[in-house]
Amino acid sequence: MTKLDDKLNYLFYGDNLSVLRDRDYFPKECVDLVYLDPPFKSNQDYNVLFAEKDGEQSAAQILAFEDTWRWDQSAAAAYKDVLKHGGKTAETLKALKNILETSDMMAYLAMMAPRLIELKRVMKPTASIYLHCDPTASHYLKMLMDAVFGAENFRNEIVWQRTSARSDSRKFNHVHDIVLFYTKTDGFIWNVQRTEYSPEYLAKFYRNIDPATGKAFSSSDLLAAGTRKGSSGQPWRGIDPNDVKRHWAIPRFVIEQYGIKAETTQEKLDALDELGLIFWPKDGKRPRFKRFLDDMIGVVLKSIWTDIPPLSAQSKEKLGYPTQKPEALLERIIQASSNPKDTVLDPFCGCGTTVAAAQKLGRRWIGIDITHLAISLIKHRLYTTYKDEPKRKRPKYEVMGEPADVSGARALAEADDVIALETEAALRRCLGRGVTVRELRLDGPVRRARGLDCSNIGRGPVDVGLRRGPVGVGLGG
Ligand SMILES: C[S@@+](CC[C@H](N)C(=O)[O-])C[C@H]1O[C@@H](n2cnc3c(N)ncnc32)[C@H](O)[C@@H]1O
Asked: What distance lies between CA 314 and its chain's CA centroid?
């Protein structure tokens, strides 16, 4: 039994390994879906967001945002810990260390291994896990995931095209992320996801317009290979399928979809013709079945996702968090691998994209992040999204956990300033403390703040790009 209330959502502030290891909160098999997006070589200069008043930085913040991992004492300890327990994961990690030695990549994998083991423990037998990563790490992570979850539970390597424009001059432009999808067992929750047909597909296959209804349709063959003795091998309207060594083959879904009750193939074909579902090509070729576009339910989603654009600078969703992912990406994952009221866990929840998507889709959620900024941003995100909703529709959640060090505690105490950056005064306080803001959306008027050229700022949302030295301010959408 978990000490967590299953009617509430939770935000944990702390290191996900120690949070997940607390069995009072996370007994085995308590989660339906896990999505994780650990920080890794995104080359973002995150630390600028967290400089403190005296120029110091909180150790926890540095840990979280130093995404170039180093083989240090904690990486070595995580490695030893996994080896102590033996088994496939230990063997895989050992093999990886033979190749990668004490590199940054190895430090990252050593940090991930114990977390993946804990995540597997908390997953229900029907649960899935989606690990978002970079192609430079995905092949190693896949080996680790195979070891922890079993190669037989690997489902997909999803390619998410996250940008269209890059300029890698000496290689093909690298524009995608990888999401590794595994399940705990073979009996996992799965809801087929479909997408709209592309304009190219429609132009190619839905060229015909039905004169009777004006609707676009594609046509498909009503004959299949091989002769048959029963009614499907007999002529219909003077057309004998035997002539071409074939037989009538009406797709089963057509009979079900149109509720056709006829017995013989010929009666079924008559019924379809009466419903206007048979296409008679003018050139006298064999009749075909009309598939009306209006009756189609979209294409089943493939493992390459090119239809979810990254967040643009103008995007309403954008919170200024450097690695923020689009909600549409998380919505797709949550819809495919969970049902309403299921529990979704994001152990590296950042500014709460999973939280926001899960809340929107009526799932219960648990987010964990080691930085106070992430927790504050999520609180702010939920507040602004639901503030105009009636109370019963607003998310009910608790914030749990302790800062990892004194500096983190002080920052937490001051966290409201970060949320309240909607006002000029809050911005002044931040600047006064030496905080450097790179790109934060301010939703209120900002004027005359020290160090800012505010001459062209009016009311309304403003994007502030601000560094030590020259300061630039631009109007946002
Ligand atoms: C790449 S970001 C996640 C972004 C997120 N998907 C979003 O859309 O906002 C990774 C997050 O992991 C957090 N993090 C790093 N190490 C952590 C740890 N040991 N425990 C919990 N969170 C951690 C960082 O603070 C950061 O917010």
From this structure: 20
For residue 116, the surrounding DSSP H or E stretch is helix 104-122
Write the DSSP symbol of residue 301. P
C-alpha 326 – ligand 1 centre gap (Å)? 15
3-state secondary structure of 367: strand
The answer to whether 133 touches 180, Cβ cutoff 8 Å, is yes
* Residue 230, helix vs strand vs coil: coil
At residue 115, the 3 state secondary structure works out as helix
Q: Per DSSP, what are the bridge partners of residue 180?
A: 131, 157
**Distance set, CA 359 to CA 8, 14, 382, 397 (Å):** 11, 22, 9, 11
pLDDT tens for residues 68-117? 678 988 899 999 999 999 999 999 999 999 999 999 899 999 999 999 99
Can you list the positions of beta strands (E) in 170-213? 176-183, 194-195, 208-209
Q: Please choose from 348, 354, 372 the residue to mutate so as to test ligand 1's pocket, defined by most ligand atoms within 8 A of CB.
A: 348
How far, in Å, CA of 332 to CA of 317, rounded?
16
Q: What CA–CA distance (Å, rounded) separates 269 from 257?
A: 14
For ligand 1, whether the C-beta of 20 sits within 6 Å is: no
Residue recorded with tokens 């035997």: 242
Q: Tell me the per-residue pLDDT of 387-430, one tens digit each, with 9 for 90 and over.
A: 999 989 999 999 887 555 555 555 544 543 333 333 444 454 44
From CA 76, how far away is CA 32, in angstroms rounded?
31
Q: Can you spell out the DSSP letters for 320-357?
A: S-TTPPPHHHHHHHHHHH--TT-EEEETT-TTTHHHHH
Measured in Å, residue 39 CA sits from the centre of ligand 1 at 6
The structure tokens listed for 142 are 């896949």
CB distance 16 to ligand 1 below 6 Å: yes
The residue to mutate among 68, 349, 355, 365, having the most atoms of ligand 1 within 8 angstroms of its beta carbon, is: 349
For 188, other C-beta atoms within 10 Å of its C-beta total 20
- Tokens 């050593």 locate to 110
Query: pTM for the complete prediction?
Result: 0.76
Phi first, then psi, for residue 64 (nearest 5°) are -70, -35
The three-state DSSP-derived secondary structure of 15-46 is: CHHHHHHCCCCCCCCCEEEEEECCCCCCCCCH
